[in-house]
Amino acid sequence: MITKFGNVMIYVENPREVADFWVDTVGFTKVDEQAVDGTTLFIELTPTADSDAHITLFDRKVVAQSSPELDLATPSILFKSPNITEMRETLAAAGTTVGDIIEAGGMTTFNFADPEGNWFAVQQVA
Length: 126
Hints:
This protein has 126 residues and is an alpha/beta fold. The protein has helices at 15-26, 60-66, 84-93, and strands at 7-12, 29-36, 39-46, 54-59, 78-81, 102-104, 107-113, 119-124. It contains three helices and eight strands, in the order βαβββαβαβββ. The strands form two sheets. A four-stranded mixed beta sheet has the order 1-4-3-2. Strand 2 and strand 3 form a beta hairpin.
């Protein structure tokens, strides 16, 4: 039986560049990193030190070679934040591509893209 949610694996072309975006722009913290022969294999990140959920950025080429059966598409992820207006403004000021804040289905959200064009959503929470 599954008792906790762990890591979301995201396959990217340049784990270092994407990790720097998540740390420097979004505010995540690096938890772990592994490199082999000078190639970054993965970088694990978390939004807060006490969060059970982490994202792990894997080098897409390395994973495609070692596990060609995997679907390497980026998953749809909905993050939550107590102040999405401030978060959106911070991301936009850093040059991040952001969508409009919208209200639909009782949720207030916006979306943003990482440096490789992978899109993620953020929902307003109390």
